[in-house]
Amino acid sequence: MTILRVFRHPAKGWRYTHNRLSPMIYPIIKYGQQVLETPAAPVTQFDGSLEKLVADMFETMYAANGVGLAAPQIGLSLKLCVIDASCGKDPSARLVLANPEVIATEGDQAEEEGCLSLPDFRAKTLRPLRATVRAHNLSGREFTLSGEGLLARAFCHETDHLVGKLFISHLSRLKRDSIKRQIRKMVKAGEW
Ligand SMILES: [Zn+2]
Q1: pTM of the predicted protein model
Q2: CA 1 to ligand 1 centroid distance, Å
Q3: CA–CA distance, 182 with 108 (Å, rounded to integer)
Q4: Cα of 76 from ligand 1 centre, angstroms
Q5: 104-121 pLDDT, tens per residue?
C-alpha cells in the first residue's frame, strides 16, 4: 500500500488516501530507459492486484491523452497493455490485453504515429490496415479481436512495446537517427 495523500477531514481529523482506493497516475518512462527496450515477462497472475494495476494504467493513459499504454512505459516489464481508441469517450472501447500477440494482419496504412515515451515526436509509420490479436483478459481467459485503422495501429504499437520495440524502429534509419540526435540534445540540456 502506498500513501498518496494526507489531508485533514473537518470532522475526522487527519486522514490519508492510498492506492487501494484511489487511482494512481504513474510517471511515464521516456525513451532511453532500458525497460522500454527489454522483452517483458508474461502475465501469470490474474487477480485483484492486476485489476488495480489495469485501472491505474487507464488513469495514467487518459491523464497523458494517450490511445494506448504498455506496462513497460510505467517501468513494469510485464506483457500487459491497455488501449482505448475512443480516447475515453466510449467506455466500451476500453481494452485490456495481457500477453497479446498479433496473429494476423492485412493491408497497409501509413499515418502519423507517436508514443507517450517519445513525447512530441510523431512520424508517418507504416502499419497493417487490419490486425488480429490473441490475448488474455483480466480473468486470464484467451480471446481474439480484430481491429482496423487506429485500433490495428494500436494493437501493433502496444504489442511491439511488450517485446521491447518502439515505433521509431519502423522508420527509415535517417529519420530514426534524426529523432535520436534530437533526444540526445534534449538529454544534455536537461529537457528529457
Ligand atoms: Zn508507445
Answers
A1: 0.89
A2: 28
A3: 29
A4: 14
A5: 999 999 999 999 999 999
Catalytic residue at 158? Answer: yes
Sequence letter at residue 138: L
Measured in angstroms, how far is the CA atom of residue 13 from the centroid of ligand 1?
43
H-state helical runs in the chain: 48-63, 150-162, 173-188
CA distance 89 to 38: 32
Residue 115 per-residue DSSP state? -
Count, residues in the chain? 192
pLDDT higher than threshold 80 for residue 178: yes
Name the residue among 81, 71, 124, 126 with its Cα closest to residue 101. 81
How many Å lie between the centroid of ligand 1 and the Cα of residue 8? Answer: 39
Tell me how far apart the alpha carbons of residues 20 and 163 are, in angstroms, rounded to a whole number: 29
User: Choosing from 51, 106, 113, 158, which is the catalytic residue?
Assistant: 158
